[in-house]
Structures are given as structure tokens and as C-alpha cells.
């Protein structure tokens, strides 16, 4: 600070002299508009106990093509960060100083290295400037002009770029809302931005825990944030932040409140989530931010009231449209942002979020009004198991300096407080100190919930007043949390609200999630000979979904289930049963007796995995899709050999069938079934009905059997099948199914029904050539069916002529 102090007479200038206090969590930043000899903007970046400073001659520009000269000046004390006021004439830098922007910043690359090489890359998290920026030192004369360092300040190309010129847009102080003239004259701070009557607290709408993502035109998904739920009320007496229980926490989030100033309204009540800001993530960092006074970010996802008008009765899409118009006035990537919306299939987004360590997604019905309390129009789908639990006590530690070894946890279940196990990891020294301080005054002699004697030994019980957020792998068989990790105290939630959602403690083994579906008993061995578990089956169907769905989606299907694995009972199921995941959808279809029955179908990976969760190994599909059930789009010939026939004979039969179909103008592709035979599949245009397709396939099968009766049969009789190949044409009648491409088979070794090329088929020695791992590792053939043909009268006549010949 020697250079800074040497230039100033602190007896005549109001500029701060003391060094100031460093930030607690994230480095701070500010820009001061300085009306000195020339008006310029001073950029301040907190680093290593000082403010690195540059004088930006024309101010920052959001146009990525603009390069603004930034002259490096002496380091300033941290106390200068929020300085505003007039510097009297005769002093260094005489003129009016306005606090033009303030916030936090985050270096993208190491600062020391950047200063040395002359390139600082960083992000700003200010009230006005946001996003990525670059400072680049000019070469040549930069160090020959009285040690003056000339840099260039440039905006990175991101969502905050190419907006309205901020220098022209913001002409008032970011803190006092005064103009330069008002600051110079010593005028009082300007009044609040929102002059209307501030709304009061309302009970928020809550989401219900769900196993799968939602589907359909009336749903969208939003991120599940790792923070505090908050309702922000805007009005004449300034913004207020309410927790989900109605507590006023405006003082704790004071650093966030100015972020609502740009919202052009008289009053509003906005629903959203407060998370740690300035690039920080996670609930533990949010708690640290609360202690440090920031940084924060507010993600708005609903608007309950605007300018005195109640919007809760309107559908979500209408409320969101109003919210978009309101929040869009705030700087992009700033303190106040819109919750991103995922429309359509959210499976890929969910997988990406979970892989990145995110919380999960919230599914919301877009046509539903806003209703307080927990309901089914908002559904939360979590990446991991993470809930709130009540602290029941602490386990004494035998390590010196450690106040406790673990915490005993509980939750309410049907009105009773029940013991749920212990958490012994996730604490840092600050957590332990805070927990110890909070628990000692509420210590008690008796346990607030019944716990086994073996687990109660050495526990100091407490009155159940504290709530902790804990993640865990699963519930064990004895109803205890497994691999629990502490994330922080939830001061915004009361113990009475901590109730287990659903009968989770009744589950024997849960917690592993695949494609949004929670897999129970994931370690159960399904294929004993191949040591393949239920989790591996679920993972397989998630991995092959992109290949399997083009053929399987939107078709009525039947399942072969083995809930206890191959050593248990295996059965065929046509209709959805109780407890099936919602991702396995149903469609009502009339059967031959006139009754309507719920048939299953899938549309995405979660549907396939949802079936696997119910013990499904095989998927069998109809030859038509649910939008045109009476018009099949595929014809299947199942070449089923008698025992003892070599696989090469089945391959030859498939080739002969292909040639006949080709003569009829019907391209076909082969699939080894994972059993004994081969399917020859003909893609169809949806012009013929079931009876026509069935008749065509029967006639063709009969033709081949009559021409070569020693090789083929077209009847199911086992007696007539001896030494022959049964050409099964019965797959082509309404309600009949065939094994789906890429489906596992309920056979030893976990073979897969695999589409292959005609050249490849001749090289195979068995229909079970692709067990699960080989199916995952092989190069997938191009999907067949790009050239569907119709069963036309001309083709029927051609087939009849072949039969007559």
C-alpha cells in the first residue's frame, strides 16, 4: 500500500486508509465510475489482500469485438471496494466517485501466472456485469511509459455478451441509486425501486418424491437445486426473503437483495431457490456463504403475484411467461436467474446432471395451477438418495480434539419419531464446532426415539430440535442408513416437517438409480452362470436404449419376468401390474372378447429400465404401434429349427427366404434370436391390415414348405417339425408378439437377440453369438427398416403365381 498512501493526503480526502478485511469465501470485485480529469471506470479485483486495479478509459463493453484500454494503476486497499463520494480538488484523482458495480469474481486460471504472462481470464458475478472476461497486457511500449502498463479489457462470448451498452444503461450508483451530480452534492440515497404494496408470505407448493421422469405434452422438467427454498417479496419497503416455513431471512441474504432492483414491477412474489453464488456449488458452500454474507444466486421458477394480481390460479406455462418477462430484465448469469426448463424427453439431461453430481430434476405439469402443500403436479426425481433427518444425539469420540464421532439420526414416520441410524462422515472442523455448540444446550438423558441397545451405547441424546441434510446409498435390511454423509444443518426446516416420504424404511435394499429409476436389490444375481446382477441388467438396457427404442417404442409389449433371477420363477406378462414404475406406460386395447385391457409400452430409456426394475429380462413387441394398432409396420418370419439341426441349415433357410422376399420386392433383415433360430424381419408401410399381412405370411411359409417338405414345415405340430425348420408365420396376427431387437433372453449366459448383416450371418455358428458383454462391445449394425414396402395387391398376386407354379 506504500504507493497508494504516498499519493494521498488522508487529512483532506475521504478515501479509506486502512487495509480492510479479506473476503470469507469468494474474492470480491467492484467498478467505480470516476469523474476525474477524464471520466473513466476503475476495475477492482480482490487478490492476496489488495485490490488489483485498472482504469478502463471508456468503461466495460458487452460487445465481444470491443477492446477497451485498461491502464494498470496502483493496488488499492480492500476497504476501497465500496467507496463512493467526492474527492476534493487538489487531491490525487480529484472528482466524484460512483460505486457503479459490485459483486464477486472467480479466476478461471491462476492469477499469479496470468499477471506474469499478461493474460487474466476470469468471470464476474456482479449486480450489473456478469459472465466471462479477459484482461490482456499490450506488448511493446507498455513498460516504457513511466512503468505504465496498458492492458485491454474484452468480453467473452457467452449469454451475457452483446447486450445493451452497460455504460449507457446504468447511470446511477449500484448502492445508493444516486447520479454523479447527486453524489457530488451529498444528496440522500434514492428511494426503493418497487413502490407497490409488498406481498406477504404464502405457503409454497412442494414436490412429491417419484421414481421416474414424467412424460407427455403437459410436463416439463427443471433442475433440482442444492440450496434453500425461498419466496422473495418485492414492494415499497424493500425486498424480503421468506423461507419455506415463513421465516424472514432477509438479513442472512442481504447480499442477494440488490439483485432484484432491475426487475421492473411495482410488487411481486417470486418462488425460487437460493444457492451459493460466484461459481460455488453445493449445500455446504451455501452454509459457508451465509456465514460470510455471500455470495448467492437466486433461481426463480414461479411467480405467485405481480403488481397486486394473484397468478396462482393460472396454469404454470402462463405464470412462467410472466416470470420470464420480469426476470429477463436482470443481467444474464447474474444474482437473479431463471430456472432452466427442459421440454420434451429429459432422460439425457437427467443422466448428464447426475454424472456431474447434480441433485436431480423436478417434473411439473404445465397446465396446473399453483397449490400450497405437497401434490402430484410437481414430482422430484433424485440422482442420489438425499433427505433431511432429525439429530437425536451424538456418539462420543475417543480421538483427542474431536467433539464427537457420529450423529444419531431419526425422522417422523406416520406421526412417530423413529431411529434411522448414524452419520459419521462429511464434517469439517467448522461443522463439528457449530454442531457441538448447538447440541450441548439441548442435551438430555433419555432417547427421543427407540434405538437398539447396541447402537445406543455411548450416545449422548439431545432434544430433537436440529435438522441435518444427509445423503446415503440405501436403506439396509435392518432399516438403517448406509454410507451416510453429512452436508449441513437445515435451519430453514422444522423437525416436525421431517417426515419420510413413502414407506422408504420398508424397502429392503434401495438407492441405486439408473436412467431415473431406483433399482431395488441391485446386487441380486439374475444370471448365476454369468454372475450378472439386476443392476447390470438395468445398466444394459440403459446403454442400448438408443438402438432398441427406434424399433420398440410405442408398441404394445409383453414381458418375460424373473423377479428372483433365473433360479426363481419365470413368467410371461401382458398387462401392467400393481407397483410398476410410471415410466412403463399403459394403453387401453380391446381384446377378442371385447374387454379393454391395459397393455404396456415404452418411449424412453427409463421405460426399459423401469421394466428391468420389475425383474424383466425379455421384451416382446407387437408388429404395430399404438397410434395405428390395426396397421402393422413389420412382418416377422421366425425360423425355429428342430433339435439336432445344425445352425448352418437355419442360416441357409434365412438366405432362401430373403431371396423369395426380394423377388417379391420386399427387402428384409436378419436377427439371431438369442435362442435357437433366426428372425427374418420385413419392414412394412402401414397400408395393409392384420388379416392381409397374416394371410401373406402364411401363404409364403406354406409355399416354402410345399416346395421343400423335407426342409420346412408351416405347421406348429411337433411331429411334423422333426428334422425340419418351422417357418413360424403366426407372429403376424393381431396380439401376437416377437422378441425385440437387442432384448436379453431368459437363458443361461444372458444371450441377446441381435440384428446382424446378411454377410455377418453366414459367419455365425449359433443364435446365441452375442452374450450381454459382447453385445455391449460389438460394432452395431446399421438399423434396418429404412425402406419399408407395402403388402399390395400386386405382391399378393405375385405370391399367388409363385404358389401356383
TrEMBL record:
Its cofactor is Mn(2+). GO terms for molecular function: ATP binding; DNA binding; DNA ligase (ATP) activity; DNA-directed DNA polymerase activity; exonuclease activity; metal ion binding. SUPFAM superfamilies: DNA ligase/mRNA capping enzyme, catalytic domain (SSF56091), Nucleic acid-binding proteins (SSF50249). Residues 1-10 have a biased composition (Basic and acidic residues). It catalyses: ATP + (deoxyribonucleotide)n-3'-hydroxyl + 5'-phospho-(deoxyribonucleotide)m = (deoxyribonucleotide)n+m + AMP + diphosphate. It comes from the Bacteria. Residues 1-25, 182-201 are annotated as: Disordered. One of its GO terms (biological process) is DNA recombination. Residues 298-424 form the ATP-dependent DNA ligase family profile domain. InterPro entries: DNA_ligase_ATP-dep_C, DNA_ligase_ATP-dep_cent, LigD_ligase_dom, LigD_PE_domain, LigD_pol_dom, NA-bd_OB-fold, NHEJ_ligase_prk, NHEJ_LigD. Its EC number is 6.5.1.1. The keyword DNA damage applies. Keywords: ATP-binding, DNA damage, DNA recombination, DNA repair, DNA-binding, DNA-directed DNA polymerase, Exonuclease, Hydrolase, Ligase, Manganese, Metal-binding, Multifunctional enzyme, Nuclease, Nucleotide-binding, Nucleotidyltransferase, Transferase. This is DNA ligase (ATP).
